Amino acid sequence: MASSRSPSLTADDIDDLLYYTRVNEKDELLKTIDELAQKYQCSKETILQAGIDPESGNSTLHYCAANGLADLLPTLFQILPEPSPQVNGAAPSAQASSFPSLINRQNAQGSTPLHWASLNGQLPVVKLLIEAGADMWIKNSAGHLAMFEAERADKGEVVQYLLEAGGKEVESLGHEGQPSSEDVQDIDAEAPSGESAAAGADKDTDVTMEEAGPG
Question: Where are the transmembrane segments (predicted)?
Answer without folding.
Answer: none
